Amino acid sequence: MKTRLIIVGGFLGAGKTTLLSVLGRLLRERGEKVGLITNDQTTGLVDTYTLSAHDFAVEEIAGSCFLL
Prior knowledge:
By secondary structure, the chain is of the alpha+beta class. 32% of the residues lie in helices and 18% in strands. It has one domain (1-68). It is globular, with a radius of gyration of 12 Å. This is GTP-binding protein.
């Protein structure tokens, strides 16, 4: 089984969470397993809550941001 990593970044309000939700649903419809990681400066992220509400497996990394 091959693991794919898709990194999504952008400004506040750019549509990242919406994109992840739509893409996640499409991948699940194709039979793929989907796991999401959210990150920001604090815990209890709205993104984590929103994506979890759509039945995605979501983990949160708080207190830092990914730098690429």
